[in-house]
Write a structure and sequence with these properties.
Blueprint lengths: L2 H14 L7 E6 L1 H10 L8 H15 L7 E4 L4 E6 L4 H20 L1 H10 L3 H19 L1 H13 L28 H7 L25 H8 L5 H22 L1 H18 L5 H15 L14 H16 L1 H10 L2 H8 L2 H6 L4 E4 L5 E5 L2 H9 L10 E6 L5 E5 L1 H4 L5 H15 L3 E6 L5 E5 L4 E3 L1
Parallel strand pairs: 1-3, 7-8
Antiparallel strand pairs: 2-3, 4-5, 6-7, 8-9, 9-10
Helix pairs in contact: 1-4, 2-3, 4-11, 4-12, 5-10, 6-7, 6-10, 7-10, 7-19, 9-10, 11-12, 11-13, 13-14, 15-17
């Protein structure tokens, strides 16, 4: 039998087990194309020099045996799944079952459902169209001008407000104070000899933003004083892709674990698979969901396949598949970890929080369940970015940003923050100031001209 035969029968088996998903288009692709997809995040995406650096990094890791990309799946209608043409038949059979699990997850989960309802189900075509528009801008305005705008937009890529809709309306206009029209007596009084007409009251300047604004991409696109339309379009394009990728980020452990649970179950119940192929696929499964490089190693980073698979197995064994499906629909990684990674699993999986010292020593800090939860979820909070909001735009259109370091629990690398601030100033074209704190928690102010001072 061919991979297509196995795929057809696996999808029929999945339907009999209650999996529901949009159609999936499977495609075999060469290694270099798969690497580009893994690095760019899309088969066709806006070109930028930073993706080239990521490509080299990914290639080195793969050549050194530290990572291997079996597949990449894009949610949509249809879903698109790309598999390596150098994978064995057994590996691609497992990948097919894994993708079916992903497809079921993204059709159930509330974050993915919301993303689909806002952006539609044809993200790859939209991404290709944005890439084409960007290339047109390069021809009209030059490589340097376009790259400067894209530098700034990608530097702010995670700074969106996922509580807002993708296509959000402008700020509401301030309500005018309603004054009743003068009656006959007051009109006659105003015209008496010696009376001066009332001085018109100049309306107060509208405060922008009317509240701290976390969606930096949206605010700059709509309120930067001198951005041209094509520059605004770049900011909005990067923002749209950040909205698309957010559910992938926020549900990574759940999603990979769910897909791993279903690929294991589908292969186990697929009595039409030859025994040798099943055993080969099972060995690949063991490689995917193992926590360590080998039996003697201790993992210092979370394998989302391993952790998610273990939690889903525990939930299903304890509470059943329908409870698991409800959790799949309603939660993201934050609820999933805090509600379902219990103390028993922490001990079983040998999880702990740790600290890497500047002298190279790694020290175990805690095996307490709450500390483990925060160690896993801390890097995921707020899209992994510091909590920075637009505080105000002054009368001269200079921009003031504020970092809520108490909220995200960390200070900034001041040198890196200064570079990002310069990117922002290039497109804002007015002075930009950031109020923040350093790694010690000392309040600092950074300005886009490079000056820094203690607050």
């Amino acid at each position: 039998m061919t991979l297509e035969d196995y795929s057809t029968r696996l999808q029929a088996l999945a339907a009999s087990l209650g999996l529901e998903y949009y159609p999936v288009d499977f495609e075999l692709v060469p290694q270099n194309f798969m690497l580009e997809i893994a690095v760019y995040g899309m088969p066709v995406r806006m070109h930028h020099w930073s993706f080239g650096l990521r490509y080299i990094h990914q290639l080195l890791h793969q050549n050194m045996g530290h990572s291997r990309v079996f597949e990449v799946m894009f949610p949509g209608c249809p879903c698109r799944a790309y598999m390596m043409d150098t994978n064995s038949l057994a590996e691609n059979t497992l990948v097919t079952a894994h993708v079916i699990g992903h497809a079921d997850f993204v059709k159930r989960n509330a974050l993915f459902v919301r993303s689909m309802s806002m952006a539609g189900g044809r993200i790859l075509e939209q991404s290709a169209a944005r890439a084409h528009t960007l290339e047109d801008a390069r021809l009209r305005h030059g490589q340097r001008a376009v790259e400067a705008v894209l530098d700034a937009a990608l530097a702010l890529e995670p700074h969106i407000d996922i509580q807002q809709p993708l296509y959000r309306p402008p700020y509401p206009e301030p309500a005018d104070v309603a004054r009743p029209p003068p009656d006959g007596f007051h009109r006659r009084y105003q015209t008496l000899p010696g009376e001066t007409p009332p001085v018109p009251v100049k309306p107060a300047r509208r405060q922008l933003p009317p509240h701290p604004e976390q969606d930096l991409l949206w605010f700059i696109a709509h309120h930067a004083p001198e951005l041209q339309d094509w520059e605004r379009d770049i900011f909005l394009a990067v923002r749209e892709e950040a909205f698309y990728f957010y559910p992938v980020h926020a549900c990574q452990i759940m999603n990979e674990g769910w897909a791993s649970y279903w690929h294991a179950r589908l292969l186990r119940e697929a009595d039409f698979l030859p025994q040798e192929l099943y055993l080969q696929a099972l060995r690949t499964h063991s490689d995917v969901v193992r926590p360590y490089g080998n039996e003697q190693d201790v993992a210092l980073s979370i394998n989302p396949y391993h952790l998610g698979f273990a939690i889903w197995e525990d939930i299903i064994e304890r509470d059943g598949i329908e409870t698991a499906r409800r959790i799949c629909a309603e939660e993201d990684d934050f609820g999933f970890i805090r509600n379902h990674l219990n103390a028993r699993l922490v001990d079983k999986l040998n999880l702990f929080s740790y600290q890497e010292r500047t002298d190279g020593e790694t020290r175990v800090l805690s095996r307490d369940i709450h500390d483990v939860h925060e160690a896993i979820l801390g890097p995921k909070y707020n899209y992994g970015a510091p909590c920075i909001a637009v505080e105000r735009m002054d009368d001269d259109h200079s921009l003031v940003l504020r970092h809520d370091h108490s909220r995200d629990g960390r200070g900034l690398d001041l040198a890196l923050a200064g570079q990002v601030l310069q990117y922002v100033a290039q497109v804002w074209r007015r002075p930009v100031t950031l109020h923040t704190a350093d790694f010690r928690g000392v309040a600092r102010t950074i300005q886009s001209d490079g000056r820094q001072k203690s607050a």
